[in-house]
Amino acid sequence: MNPKSHLIESLISLGATMLIAAGLGWYMLNEPTRIVSAQGEVLAVQLDEAMTLYAENCAVCHGLNGEGIGATPALNNPALGTMPFEEIQKTIARGRYQTAMPAWSLLDGGPLSDYQIDELVLLIQYGDWAETGDRVVNLGLAPLVPFTTEADPALLAQVGTLTDGATLQTAVQIFAANCVSCHGADGLGTSIAPALNDEDTRAKTADELTRTLTLGNTGTLMAGWSNTLTPEEISALITLIQRWQEVPLGTIPAPNVPIPTTEESIALGSQLYAANCSRCHGPEGQGTPRAPSLNVQSFFVDRTDQAIQQIITSGVPGTAMPTWGDRMTEAEIQAIVGFIRQWEATAPEVATLTRPGGGGPPWRNNSTATTQTTLFGLLPVTSTNPTISTHANGSTQTTNALDWRILLLIGILLASAFTLISKGLSSLARLKR
Ligand code: HEC
Ligand code: HEC
Ligand code: HEC
User: Fold this and answer.
1) Does domain 153-246 bear CATH number 3.40.1440.10?
2) CATH of domain 263-378
3) Whose CA is nearest to atom 20 of ligand 1?
4) Per residue in 272-298, pLDDT tens?
């Protein structure tokens, strides 16, 4: 090998070495900012996990956005956020004795690890409650509270004519404002709280009922009301509970609470509707010869979101309308209700379904009775749960700085390339000679 090509080869190797060194140096200079951004990412991931934990465990009592419900305090309150970390941690871990606030730590028989409890404290200190509310909605865990209803005026007046009518009227109004959300219309119970308007409850002594109402039942959704209601109001409620059979049904109607929606829930509803409902009810809800229009004023006017949810969940027995409750989650059905409810603003007075026969829109071409029955057994239900729970996760982990291993690899590759080229050059030089 002649000295000239040897020199070229050495120069090239030197260049490659310097490149590796420069890469490493660049990496080290950037290391501190990388650590800071990594810490930010860890916090973002923890807050993200905390929002789901909150939705699953706490929203039912502390509200959609941590605003508090009835007798349960708010968690979105800035004063709480500035309390020492350990104090909030202890409250969540151990609960508050003799209140409805249960102990959450595994040590105290609860379901949460210390790490998860720390994440919840971070949520209380640094969390975004609007975003948390969206998470609760997207997971279909929006509490049915706070909601209240108005007593029916005519029936309320009728209650006034009963013995001790004024007390019963007061109790009906307190119940409509504070208890109906859990214990249901006319106290007949819901999926989250038992009926109070029944023989079993009437059979309880006034003392027993007063104790439950005043102190709550530890570890259940039933909070103590002694901070919110006066002893007279509590005693009026006991009178109502014991004499409820005298109060006409319909005095305390079900509340009409719109199901909360988010951009994600509407998108999910739209997708589920297209996959499961449009073949019968039409892509725009305009109806088909197989199923009535849903996109029409007369449909919306008498139906609350709860009623629509109930119809979709249970189906219409004896008709082609399937039962969806066993194929979709509550969150998915609520997403469909939110999607359908959007049509109300522009829904026509009269259904726009044109009579079959005259070259109708393409969606009616395959709507024969035979396809209906075959389709019925094979209806695909697209379950898109993962998109709801992971949308925020994915985006927090994609911002990593260039890893040093990648830089090293690039360096080595470049070095080999240089060596190869220099070998080629020196062979060329040799050939020329
Ligand atoms: C069954 C209803 C219920 C559930 C579920 C619940 N809490 Fe509570 N929580 C309460 C009540 C009631 C209080 C008020 C206790 C008292 O009177 O001191 C409370 C108090 C608190 C407090 C103290 C607030 C303050 O201002 O001092 C924190 C923090 C708290 N809860 C966090 C949580 C977290 C986090 C979760 C979910 C893991 C949760 N709670 C679930 C009912 C509940
Ligand atoms: C956040 C939901 C919620 C609210 C609001 C609520 N309760 Fe309850 N209540 C419950 C649950 C759940 C139970 C069952 C507790 C248990 O299993 O021990 C219960 C139990 C009771 C009981 C005992 C029933 C029995 O058969 O032993 C009474 C009485 C009662 N509630 C009255 C009321 C009154 C009156 C109000 C309004 C001032 C009210 N509750 C508000 C959830 C609620
Ligand atoms: C196989 C055809 C079919 C499919 C698929 C279907 N439906 Fe229906 N649906 C019907 C029929 C038929 C009725 C009318 C039942 C009756 O006679 O009351 C109905 C009624 C309803 C009603 C009540 C209308 C009213 O006036 O009260 C709602 C709400 C509804 N469907 C929603 C849905 C949703 C949401 C989906 C998709 C998850 C769906 N349906 C899928 C056939 C269908």
Assistant:
1) no
2) 1.10.760.10
3) 101
4) 999 999 999 999 999 998 899 999 998
Same topology, domains 3-138 and 263-378? Answer is: yes
Give the pLDDT confidence score for residue 360 in this predicted structure: 38
Q: Is 92 a pocket residue for ligand 1 (Cβ < 6 Å)?
A: yes
- Tell whether the model's pLDDT for residue 231 goes beyond 80: yes
Residue 384 has pLDDT above 70, yes or no: no
pLDDT band at 352 (very low <50, low <70, confident <90, very high): low
Instruction: Look at the pTM and tell me if it is higher than 0.85.
Output: no
Contact 426, 8 (CB under 8 A): yes
Does residue 14 have a pLDDT over 70? Answer: yes
Distance CA 118, CA 42 (A): 13
Closest protein CA for atom 17 of ligand 3? 319
d(CA 185, CA 172): 11
Lining ligand 2 with CB less than 6 A are: 70, 145, 178-179, 181-183, 193-194, 196, 201, 204, 209, 212-213, 217, 220-222, 225, 237, 241
Angle, CA 138 vertex, CA 135 and CA 139 arms, to 5°:
85
What values do phi and psi take at 350, rounded to 5? -120, 140
336 vs 329: CA distance, rounded Å: 11
Domain limits of the chain? 3-138, 153-246, 263-378
Ligand (nearest to CA of 272):
3
Compute the distance between CA of residue 267 and CA of residue 344 in angstroms, rounded to an integer. Answer: 17
Give the residue, 17 or 294, on which the prediction is more confident: 294
Q: Which ligand is the nearest neighbour of the Cα of 97?
A: 1
Backbone angles phi, psi at 372, to 5 degrees: -60, -50
Both tokens of residue 305?
């979101």
Please say whether the structural domain 3-138 has been given the CATH code 3.30.160.20.
no
